[in-house]
Amino acid sequence: MARRQTRFSAQDMVDDPRLKDESPSLWGDDYGGVAAGLLSSAVTCFAGIGFNATTTRDISAGVGLSPAAMYVHFASKELVLFEIARIGHERALAFIESPEVEQAADSTARLRTIVARFVAWHARHHACGRVCQYELSALSAEHYEAVTELRRAINGVFRDAVRRGVQDGSFADVDVDRVVRGMLSLGIDLVRWYRLDGPDSPEQIGEFYADLALSMVARGSAVTSA
Amino acid sequence: MARRQTRFSAQDMVDDPRLKDESPSLWGDDYGGVAAGLLSSAVTCFAGIGFNATTTRDISAGVGLSPAAMYVHFASKELVLFEIARIGHERALAFIESPEVEQAADSTARLRTIVARFVAWHARHHACGRVCQYELSALSAEHYEAVTELRRAINGVFRDAVRRGVQDGSFADVDVDRVVRGMLSLGIDLVRWYRLDGPDSPEQIGEFYADLALSMVARGSAVTSA
Q: What ipTM was reported for this prediction?
């Protein structure tokens, strides 16, 4: 295995505080027991060294099993990636389609809640988020399309919230698609560096970025050109 | 090579429009000829399948050379990564420390120019940017520290620009470090999805994101809470 550095091991990654998040809580409705453990191990490996460098042996070793154990539960490494990406996107979508969003008093409160929840979700599940954002090119065409469908739905929640605020006059007349792309970047880029043991809780960074997102759609903001 | 998918090849990556950028123009002051070609090939491979999954054979194949050719010019794959990261960060830093920034009429114009140039640089060199943002954990401790020093300098340019605007009253009294983190995320996240053959030129997305960044520091922005 000439291309593997000796300093990587599944155990090193399990112990790496940069890769610790709450992804293991995501699988409950779909998988339990060993299968859930394999998904969590795969999240750590894919987030740590990438899908292409991860072996099925690494994934099994993360739960203390023999090299072929993964195949008892998943037909391929690609299927493991798909299940992580599918479930990750489904959970993130459900989290920003919460009753709290539907009950928001107005367009500003609605957008604030959506951004704060989207950001907090990605902070709390940043390792899964990293896999969902950086590893999709390794999916089969069919699986890629299924995940793209979920991404369109997430995009749609943001676009709808911004469009409603523009239409009712709460927000400036912004370029909806491009502003939404910027808001999503704020929520997504943090998976690159966020740590749960850092200074900001997921909810704190969520609230802060919700303020930044609202500033992007504010009417008559006054940056002075002295 | 059980872990490599047959659908990856250095040639596929060279031909992939998602990985085409202007990184080959970056090496001129440091490397020419075959060495420069190897760096460009490595950018494509690292951005396409990740550092850990790339072999020295892949890097050599990208310039049509035999497997060991890389070692004539670089002692290790890690050194190739370091040279890409070092040069990439040095060029990005130089680009936002341009005379155009120093000659800016006021704090608003200065921040606008810095953000627009930072974003345009990352758009134009998005494959190199992807390596610089997502692959640093594969660097040796010493090389990681050297790159971190350059990242601190880039961060410092943004912080200084925001702080000056806060101090002279051009901007609101914002949390400088956290706002800068958000601005950098706007400029960085685009390396994940930007393509030079897409609808926005590097300069267009630079100007658009400069507007978003200025909105983040605007005084008295009016998001109505109806």
A: 0.90
